[in-house]
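Can anyone check this?
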Amino acid sequence: MTRLTRFTDPHAVDLWDTRFRWRSGERLRDRTVDATWQRVAAALVAVGGDSGYWCSRYVAAFGAWQVLPDPRLLRRAGTERAVPALRTPRAALNAGAFVLDAGGERARFDHDRFAIAAALAVRMLDDAAVAFGAERGRLRLEVGVIGLADALARMGVDYLDAAAPAQAQAIARSLALGCLQGAGRLSRERGARAGGPDLAAAWSARETPAALAEALSANRRHARLTRVRPQPALARLANGASDGIEPARHASPSGPLRAARARIAAAMQGWIDAPVRTRS
């Protein structure tokens, strides 16, 4: 097994060990976090074709802290414990992991790589829905974001700065387009599912690239792809990433920070299928 994962936060290690590490009685089954990734990925790809390829893709994305799977999968997939029905499976893309030349004058967000990861997350959640309980109806997936404030900081953009909402909106757009591209592939590969709203309804007010317009109109498999909300367990596991679109982890709540968060949420909302949620 290739070891990719690097913990930098002891609290993240504790969280993995206490909540997500597989133990069977007195026997320790997940000897490392890489074993956890492998276990979850193998359980997901068991329902589809080309399982070795997609398993390796999932493990690599998990190990690089780019894509974090549903906590319910981390706890139970591939163990002797049944995974609860995943009617709305969720995942988080860690935006902070996609900044190039972080902290430097040329720091920038890698939108292409982020969109590819978003498409991968859609496949992962489609696999999860098929394997663990979405028996009927179009799939309501929840691909979200953590580490937004981290990404802004690594690009040299202050959370309170006027440039922050535009950067957040660009990230939301890349998330949406990547998810749509991944959903189009799956719709062609796996076919339609009856019942539920069309995905096109969520895109009615968005500018859809011509290359994706046909995939959108033909998709009868998915009702929703994206939802941005706090995911504290996944943020803590990802070496203490900032949660959702919240300010940096140790920032004290204040009027200016809340106002900045509201501006960021409003800027992202047009590209997200469900209402953007923040901490109360």
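Reply from J.R.: I decoded it. The longest helix spans residues 164-190.
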